Write a sequence for this structure.
């Protein structure tokens, strides 16, 4: 079966059209042995994931957004990745997020509808159950689990086309969606509720959005706890980086793509915890299998995108292909299927904490 590099459909937010094709280069050598990186997704379900671009971000949010910091080797929010200091969050009725979007509520929102998995991630961290959702993330045992998640109403229309009437039927006082996918719903929602579209590009954005939502909901203690837990996990992982070469691929059938920092939030964690030499090539760019072979990948993380039905894992679809079988990771049994709901779609502190736990256990 031939390998077909995956190209996202037009408008799919996986790689965002506004993204900077340049992405950080993985640091060369690493000094420990751990190993797995997960795969980012794209395809029509790439819309489910959301765009990750390379635009420059504002340093702070108005009501406790990205905390300011110091130290050397600073990340985009001005602080070291190993800096686990968490600044206090103040409750607020208005915030301005990392993309410059201002959100104001008359009171602490209680009925929140999630159109993007990052919303479910943040609400879980804050101890809030969504009024309705269109994500399967909540069924993961690290979130509500299958039984409790089944009690949360599902917004009809799916991720790509959620129905405005159905959203408003839940009488929400806040709706959170993905800018690239749900921004077009604004005219139908803004007069009836508060509509906030997010666009996370990296883990720092996930932290900043969490802090903003905590300020609006008054769940500041919960957010500070969640941020501290995530920063601690990240610092521990980066303190013992692996020298193994990791790769995350995503796809369906014989189509595949490479998850790269700058275009995928989870992939952005990997240059700090493993040798991850994959750079973003923009919306249309991808890697050939020959290029992957040349990097001698030790650990391969696979995100299988499902579009309904019983789709076989991507790693099984490729089994028997001579090029696939030539990969070091395949020969040595280091191919790991991961949950795309968490690895590709979650993009918040709880999802990324799970990614770090799973990855470092393998690398």
């Amino acid at each position: 079966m031939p390998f077909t590099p995956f190209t996202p459909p037009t408008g799919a937010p996986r790689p965002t059209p506004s993204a900077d094709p340049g992405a950080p280069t993985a640091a060369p050598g690493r000094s420990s042995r751990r190993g797995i990186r997960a795969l980012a997704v794209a395809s029509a379900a790439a819309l489910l994931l959301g765009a990750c671009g390379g635009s420059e971000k504002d340093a702070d949010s108005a009501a406790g957004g990205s905390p300011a910091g110091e130290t050397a080797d600073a990340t985009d929010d001005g602080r070291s990745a190993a800096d686990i200091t968490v600044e206090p969050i103040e409750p607020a009725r208005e915030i301005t997020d990392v993309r410059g979007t201002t959100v104001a509520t008359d009171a602490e929102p209680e009925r929140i509808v999630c159109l993007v998995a990052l919303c479910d991630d943040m609400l879980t961290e804050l101890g809030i159950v969504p009024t309705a959702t269109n994500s399967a993330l909540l069924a993961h045992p690290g979130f509500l689990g299958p039984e409790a998640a089944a009690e949360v109403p599902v917004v009809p229309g799916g991720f790509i086309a959620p129905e405005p009437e159905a959203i408003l039927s839940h009488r929400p006082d806040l709706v959170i969606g993905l800018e690239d996918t749900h921004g077009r719903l604004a005219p139908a929602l803004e007069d009836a509720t508060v509509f906030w579209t997010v666009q996370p590009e990296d883990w720092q954005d996930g932290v900043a959005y969490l802090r903003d939502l905590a300020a609006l909901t008054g769940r500041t203690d919960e957010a500070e706890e969640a941020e501290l837990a995530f920063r601690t996990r990240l610092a521990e992982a980066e303190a013992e980086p692996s020298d193994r070469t990791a790769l995350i691929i995503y796809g369906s059938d014989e189509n595949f793509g490479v998850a790269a920092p700058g275009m995928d939030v989870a992939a952005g964690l990997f240059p700090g915890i493993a040798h991850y030499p994959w750079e973003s090539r923009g919306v249309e760019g991808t890697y050939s299998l020959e290029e992957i072979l040349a990097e001698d990948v030790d650990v391969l993380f696979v995100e299988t995108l499902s579009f309904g039905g019983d789709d076989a894992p991507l790693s099984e679809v490729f089994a028997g292909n001579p090029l696939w079988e030539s990969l070091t990771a395949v020969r040595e049994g280091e191919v790991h299927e991961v949950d795309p709901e968490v690895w590709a779609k979650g993009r918040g502190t709880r999802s990324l904490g799970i990614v770090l736990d799973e990855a470092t256990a393998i690398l």
Q: What stands out?
A: The CA atoms of residues 161 and 182 lie 8 Å apart. The longest helix spans residues 220-239.
